[in-house]
Amino acid sequence: MVVQRRARGRAVAAWGAARVGAPSPRGAPVLHAVGDESSRCPRAAPRAGCPQLRAPAATRRLGAGHGRTVTIEERVRGRGGVARSGDVARTSTDRARLADAVRDGRLVRVARGIVAVPAAVPQGRALACGGSLTCVSALAVRGIPLLAEPAALHVAVPRRRGPSLGVVKHWGGDAERSGVASLPAALVHAARCLPRAEWVAAADAAVARGMDPARLHRPRAARGGRAMASLIGLIDARSGSLPESLLRVAMLDAGLPVQPQVLLPGIGRVDFLVDGVVVEVDGFAYHSGRAEYRADRRRDREAHRQGYVVLRFTFEEVVHHRDRVVAEVAAFCGVALPAPHAANDR
């Protein structure tokens, strides 16, 4: 009994010494300092498979140095904002957390077995249809300016399937992991849905962001190949805004000699130079401040001093009354347009 008490006393002393950094008494069993992983195991040299040293599965995925668990929302966001329930919640605990996230509104159950963050609900609906967002739906998600929000969901599916309520299906195309078709694929599909001038405006914005227009080409013998080739010929990455693209296409259709984004000495860069007439489109993005307004007036005075005629048009005029805008530009250029002029035809 005395021997056992002495051994127990030495063990307690060694434990206290380990906490304060003092050397342990001779012959005492070696224990590890508080906070050391191996102190959780009663043996000095714990086995690799000791269950007390195993980190939770979600923590292990984050790697060494991370002490928190990956949330269900983070798993869904890591998959582009939309995922199948079985891919992010494989245990009963995860399924309970998933139900809580849906109940709290942090996630949305788009369809049976599919969840998404609120901002990615359209991608979730596309996944439920077995495809990816495409056409105007994909362009809107990727930030390409459009005149109006898509009225229906446009989905690319790899093979023909039955109709879905509120969904416009485009045949052909593999499902993207992100749930959103690439810009070239979306523009190819949008050529059948968007009016000609609006499609060119969307393509202008895509090319300005670095998309190669060659990725839009189709064999001329293929269905829609000739029409696509004519559309590609109208793309101009120099366009500064959606209304500029719309007006450029309308003026070209009217046969006017359009030069976009011309740098004039002493004046600066103008939207268009049409047979000596400066044409400017005032959009909301740049021309909404007082400083921009003053700079535009100074440029106009300098242009008048150099002998240029300056015509300014608003966003609403270009979007809703392009025929009148083109007719006015043509009148100042001395060009007679056929009547009635259909520059605003979509």
Walk me through what this model shows.
With 346 residues, the chain is of the alpha+beta class. The chain contains 14 helices and ten strands. It has helices spanning 2-20, 57-62, 72-77, 85-88, 92-104, 121-128, 135-141, 183-190, 196-208, 225-232, 242-253, 290-305, 315-320, 322-333; strands at residues 82-84, 108-111, 114-116, 132-133, 153-157, 167-171, 258-264, 268-274, 277-282, 309-314. Strand 8 (268-274) and strand 9 (277-282) form a beta hairpin. The protein is elongated. The N and C termini lie far apart (101 Å). Mean pLDDT is 79; it is low at 19-25, 27-65 and 342-346.
Summarize the structure.
With 346 residues, the protein is α+β, with helices and mostly antiparallel strands.
Going by helix content, strand content and strand pairing, the class is alpha+beta
Strand numbers in spatial order across the main sheet: 7-8-9-10
Rg over alpha carbons: 33 Å
Which range does the strand content fall in?
5-15%
Count of β-strands: 10
Sketch the topology as an H/E string, one letter per element.
HHHEHHEEHEHEEHHHHEEEHEHH
- Write down the overall geometry: elongated
Give the averaged pLDDT, no decimals: 79
Tell me the helix content. 25-40%
**First-residue to last-residue Cα separation:** 101 Å
